[in-house]
Amino acid sequence: MKFTFTIPNLLSIIRVCFIPFVIYFIVQNSLINISIALILFAISSITDAFDGMLARKLNQVSEFGAFLDPLADKFLIWSVFTAFSFQNDLFIPLWLIVFIYLRDLFITLLRAYSRKKKKNFKTSFAAKAKTTFQMSAAAFILIYMFVTNLIGNISHIKSVSYSDIWKTVAPERFFWIIYLPLVLTIVTVVFTIYTAFEYYFNFKKKEINNG
Questions:
Q1: Over the stretch 196-211, which tens digit does the pLDDT of each residue have?
Q2: What is the pTM of this model?
Q3: Which phi-psi region, left, alpha or beta, contains residue 29 (left: φ > 0; alpha: ψ -120 to 50)?
Q4: Number of domains the chain contains
Q5: Residue 88: DSSP 8-state
Q6: Structural domain contains residue 162
């Protein structure tokens, strides 16, 4: 696979290079660190939206870019949600994130098998929507972390616990807000798994029709 220096490929590489910095600032979990993580993640999401479009518009579509672009997305999502799982205040268990890993591994193997059998394996609309949903969910959780830290700072709450912050500033009937990151992650995982089943059943349907 030959690397071609193009703007779309450069954007994909930048997205990969940003990943360790995003993770570092999430783990540090303070107002300034989450702010930086949110900015870097936003830039990464923007590059994801533009690299493919630029590649087609500038006629710079390459095999390397087609390989790196979706891989960069996967690495970014895996890393960010894994970092979330290590923040106890978000209540997101690591075993839940494992389903995202397994889905991507399954689709990668299915894609490789299709290539071996010389079958067409197109990215479905649901799969494209899945990536957008995952990015949006991760951004929302980062915004939640930013807002919570901001409220804690403004209210001069000494505790760094999200639960303590919301318990102090929000009425008891709104205390459920601390579970928003978990609920959003569950919805994201369910949608992610759904796309795996969609891929598989479409693949089997084509296999039967060609058989």
A1: 888 888 777 765 444 4
A2: 0.88
A3: left
A4: 1
A5: G
A6: yes
